[in-house]
């Protein structure tokens, strides 16, 4: 098998990796092995972070919508189910933006959601939990109690 000397490929590969590690602390930006480890870790965190960002923004939108809906006498779940039955197809991102920047238009949407909700049937009110029957323990007569009688 012929010997491969790699030529300029090795240098180009290392140069590219060290360029990615530019600005890293101490040896992590200067020595190849340390730079490779830190760049690999950074890429791993970047991959995870792109997925986390979607989760974090959705949570933020839900919190904002919930706060705005409660100002109009609805919980988040009541508001969203009302929108669904009313046929409003705005996504959470748009609803959250409206709640922050355009409260008047959000109020009209909240009114639509409230009107579209089915009439809630009142739950039966329980005054107290049903008491469990108390177990009666039969006392067996002992020899000493028979002797007394």
Secondary structural class: mainly alpha
Please report the distance between the alpha carbons of the first and last residues.
Answer: 111 Å
Count of discrete structural domains:
1
Shape summary: flat
Instruction: Give the overall average pLDDT.
Output: 90
Low-pLDDT ranges:
none
CATH homologous superfamily heading:
Ribosomal protein L20, C-terminal domain
- Mind describing the biggest β-sheet? none
SSE string, helices as H and strands as E: HHHHHH
- Helical fraction equals 55-70%
DSSP strand count = 0
Instruction: Supply the number of helical segments.
Output: 6
What do we call the CATH topology? c-terminal domain of poly(a) binding protein
Strand content: under 5%
Describe the overall structure.
With 149 residues, the protein is mainly alpha-helical. 62% of the residues lie in helices and 0% in strands. The chain has six helices and no strands.
Give a brief description.
By secondary structure, the chain is mainly alpha-helical. The chain is 62% helix and 0% strand.
Secondary structure layout:
Blueprint: H1 9-20, H2 32-71, H3 76-86, H4 92-101, H5 103-116, H6 143-148
Helix pairs in contact: 1-2, 2-4, 3-5, 4-5
What would the keywords be for this entry?
149 residues; mainly alpha; c-terminal domain of poly(a) binding protein; 62% helix
